[in-house]
Amino acid sequence: MGANINENTDQINLNYIQVPVLATYYFGTKNEAGSIRPKLFVGPHLNFLLNSSNKAGNDINPDGTRFNAVDFGATLGGGLNYNLGSKSWINFDVRYGIGLIDISKDPNVTMTNRGLSVNLGVSFPIGSI
Known about the structure:
seven-stranded antiparallel β-sheet
């Protein structure tokens, strides 16, 4: 996860790792190869700031005085799962995340994260579960 902010003279890049905890509701009960299962999900997420830099690549938060190291927010979205068989699925979803706390440490500035993402992946069992 990342952010680009255009200031008057520079661009700010904020890069995060996000840890979501999502409650997912699947529509339909078919669990056979070739079946498609729509889903909706919602839940909180934590973002951990990895680095912040300007357009030249310089660290703009070296002492942690400009941006908070942790952000908290909410995620919601929906998607489709396609069953490949043998408990393996192709997952497609679209999600929107919104930050719920101010990430700026400047009392004169309010900044929150927002993001829209499209995800594609494969899930499969590990072991005999």
